[in-house]
Amino acid sequence: MTRILIVDDHPLFREALESAVRLERPQCEIFEATTIDEALDVLAREKNLDLGLFDLFLPGTTGLSGLVRVRAAHPHLPIMVVSAHEDPRVVRDLLALGAAGFVSKATSKGELARAINEVLNGSIYLPERFRDINQPQPSEIERGDMLRRLQDLTPQQLRVLDMIRAGLQNKQIAYELGVAETTVKAHVSEILRKLNVYSRTKAAIEVGKMDFAQFSAEGHPGADKSASN
């Protein structure tokens, strides 16, 4: 039986995704999560899932950081991103991180079902307009280098990096994670080394360049949540 995890914080869109899945796989077993942390809990508990369908912007994450965390913890899980944000740079970076596909939230249910089926059959799915993405510009090559460095971080280091970007200090991070402050300091040191930056502020700035801050105004709760049935 096909087993799929749907990750979106909007209940109506989770319903829309489930409906699209069942067009192609009526007997599919579906799991749901509303945040990256919930998704990681499900993935730790439920083995041998066939596909993850992830919104790009979720509570507790910024930009691509959620996808990076999931890929680090579960590198063999095919992930298709379903998002309202359709900038080619976003799509290019998602593929660089190992996503198995991208589809717009404005896509019809029938096309969404076909996209899901393609990915379940082992293909990488992109809408027609993204299948000839131009070569990246120099600034995009730099982002690609940073993406590769991010993939060297452990899941816990990625959580710490997210908290650094949210402005938390080591003591606060230690409290949130339930670990000693010395452990957090060790994580921070490793993060800076792996990202090849000299300070936590620089790490936040460099990673922020890839999180497409220009979408943050559009990415307020509800802005990413329209879908066609």
The general outline is globular
Mean pLDDT reading = 81
Radius of gyration: 18 Å
What proportion strand? Answer: 5-15%
Under the CATH scheme, the architecture of the largest domain is 3-Layer(aba) Sandwich
Question: The biggest beta sheet, please?
Answer: 5 strands, parallel
Low-confidence stretches: 134-138, 212-229
Q: What is the topology, as strand order, of the major beta sheet? A: 2-1-3-4-5
Q: What is the count of DSSP helices, taking H or I runs of 4+ residues?
A: 10
Helix share bin: 40-55%
Give a verbal description of the structure.
This protein has 229 residues and is α/β, with parallel strands linked by helices. The chain folds into 2 domains: 128 residues, 3-Layer(aba) Sandwich (Rossmann fold), CATH 3.40.50.2300; 75 residues, Arc Repressor Mutant, subunit A (Orthogonal Bundle), CATH 1.10.10. 48% of the residues lie in helices and 10% in strands. It is built from 10 helices and 5 strands. It has a 5-stranded parallel β-sheet, sandwiched between helices. Helix 1 packs across helix 5, helix 3 packs antiparallel against helix 7 and helix 7 crosses helix 10.
